[in-house]
Amino acid sequence: MQKQTPLFTLAETEKKGRCVVAVCPIQANTIILCEPSIATVMYTTSRTSFCAYCTDSLPNTTTQLACPDCKKIFYCSKKCFRADQLLHKFECRAYKSARAEFIQDSDAVHLLRMMSVFAYNEAHSTRLYSDSFPSLPPFNTLTPLQKLFDLTGHEGSFTGEYETNQRPICEEALSYLKYQEVRGMFENVLKYGLHENRCTICGKSRHTLPGQARHVCLRKDSAWKTQWSLSKLEFEAITETLICSWESKHGKRKQSENEEIPLEMMQATLVPLLISAQSIADCNAHTIFRDTGFGLFHMGSMFNHACCPNSAFCHDRRGRIIVVTLRPIRTAEEITVDYSELCIAMDRRQKELKGTYHFDCRCPRCVRTTLNRLGSGTRNKTWAAVVRAEEEFERKQGRMGAEEADMDQCIHSSTCE
């Protein structure tokens, strides 16, 4: 596929957060996005039938390759085998020493692959099948770890049960890493300020202000941070602060002579971030075509849901996500996709969306259905009439009105580099 001028950009509003918006009229059946994943994993039942890197079907020939160490993961070619070595590194080690229950859990295996992104972030910036498009600033300069934490999980819906369930998985995953590998993860976390919940675009705190759906910085390109580095003195100062905080909470622990930084302190810093990474994957991962596995895609996760979408997801034979339009789209119109099943009843769709993605759908289709149930008679009305009816309905119910921001004013520069 050839690179093309971006047909969409990201709009950012205080109340709704980010959404994908068309920057020009787009015809139906137009491919507007092609993107490789940050990390992909095959389901247990698919690991012997599909390539662990590109997700293509394995050939029934001698070109099929198995990992020589764990002999559990297969590849369609030597190119894919070599390209997957870093992502597979921790996973391979776990296959040889982990509990069967752990390695059969696809979410746990995906975590091991994401941990490789933590440890070898820069090395993952180049992918074998990386001819993706479009190129949107500032995202085209982000590293995989920055892209991962640019996404949001369901931290606002965290329960003690979720963290309790995820913590032992994250701790076990860390136990398969060597000291220098854990330190590599720790250094990258400090480099981007992830331990302080900092934005990976502007470097400031991601805490939202009252009335904000999420941290807002895309429309302030002068605030974008371009240099991400820590001097030795800065790294030592931050590390010393974390050590002191950890020791005051847990008491001073015995430190190995080979450990410049206490291993337990680094693990304690990393576990909450790994739980957040799991949360991000839970909310944003996409099932690979043919239900063979799932992958985490940065730009592919920016598309909001609608039960009557104007675009759809699919995947190519290189494991990349493809977004294609289903109908003509107007300039400044939001581009939406379906997160659920289109042909099931609204109540079931709402339940699935609430349970998995933690939001109540207010898309045109759901609004029409709700208003018709209330006897508002909107079945044959235009969309403008439905919006007016919805606003009146919300005013009567004392709820927040429709989004007031003008999408034309929110469109961010989409110059292709």
UniProtKB/TrEMBL annotation:
<keyword id="KW-0862">Zinc</keyword>
<dbReference type="InterPro" id="IPR002893">
    <property type="entry name" value="Znf_MYND"/>
</dbReference>
<keyword id="KW-0479">Metal-binding</keyword>
<dbReference type="InterPro" id="IPR050869">
    <property type="entry name" value="H3K4_H4K5_MeTrfase"/>
</dbReference>
<dbReference type="InterPro" id="IPR046341">
    <property type="entry name" value="SET_dom_sf"/>
</dbReference>
<dbReference type="Pfam" id="PF00856">
    <property type="entry name" value="SET"/>
</dbReference>
<feature type="domain" description="MYND-type">
    <location>
        <begin position="51"/>
        <end position="92"/>
    </location>
</feature>
<dbReference type="InterPro" id="IPR001214">
    <property type="entry name" value="SET_dom"/>
</dbReference>
<dbReference type="Pfam" id="PF01753">
    <property type="entry name" value="zf-MYND"/>
</dbReference>
<protein>
    <recommendedName>
        <fullName>Suppressor of anucleate metulae protein B</fullName>
    </recommendedName>
</protein>
<keyword id="KW-0863">Zinc-finger</keyword>
<feature type="domain" description="SET">
    <location>
        <begin position="6"/>
        <end position="340"/>
    </location>
</feature>
